[in-house]
Q: What sequence folds into this?
């Protein structure tokens, strides 16, 4: 009996990330623990096979030698289209982090509701890790994610609520001791991402 589309995607992603020698930044676990967590979050709101396959594969094109052509050949057009919408295509020429991030936010904002659902699951899992292991970087990251999810309203409402809660709780945590980041710092940081008015 042939494996399900999701099982094929799980195996493919596991091999791709391991082959690239990729590990989780803070825990040094095999990278696949992240796509696994994203797939589980997506499964909590949908049993769509293509959606679950794309959740497993969402970082393969960005982080490994795998191309969108490889994804399409192995998993079909719909999965490849979802992965493409989730791949950060911000030009490396963008001047600074804020400019790159704004370009990426626009890219995910134009993604389909299904792709936005996977992106929300991705944000939930990454946010948990960053607040726990890197509170200093988390200050910048949480502001970015707060801005990004404001553009992801077409994704699953339940995951949107969860993403918003995990971001706001991270920000609240950083305002408390031992971090004591003032509200004004978050406001100033957020202003960096406002696009200059034409």
A:
């Amino acid at each position: 009996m042939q494996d399900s589309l999701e099982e094929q995607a799980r195996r493919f992603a596991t091999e791709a990330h391991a082959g690239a020698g990729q590990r989780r930044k803070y825990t040094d676990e095999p990278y696949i623990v992240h796509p696994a967590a994203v797939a589980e979050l997506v499964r909590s709101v949908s049993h769509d096979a293509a959606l679950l396959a794309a959740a497993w594969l969402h970082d393969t094109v960005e982080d490994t030698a795998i191309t969108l052509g490889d994804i399409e050949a192995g998993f079909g057009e719909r999965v490849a289209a979802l992965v493409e919408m989730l791949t950060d295509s911000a030009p490396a020429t963008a001047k600074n982090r804020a400019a790159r991030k704004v370009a990426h936010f626009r890219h995910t904002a134009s993604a389909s509701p299904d792709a936005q659902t996977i992106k929300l699951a991705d944000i939930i899992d990454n946010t948990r890790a960053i607040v726990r292991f890197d509170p200093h970087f988390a200050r910048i990251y949480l502001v970015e994610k707060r801005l990004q999810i404001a553009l992801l309203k077409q994704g699953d409402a339940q995951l949107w609520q969860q993403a918003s809660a995990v971001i706001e709780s991270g920000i609240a945590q950083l305002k408390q001791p031992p971090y004591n980041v003032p509200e004004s710092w978050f406001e100033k940081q957020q202003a960096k991402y406002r696009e200059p008015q034409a």
The mean pLDDT is 93. The CA atoms of residues 29 and 197 lie 43 Å apart. Residues 113-133 form the longest helix (21 residues). The radius of gyration is 17 Å.
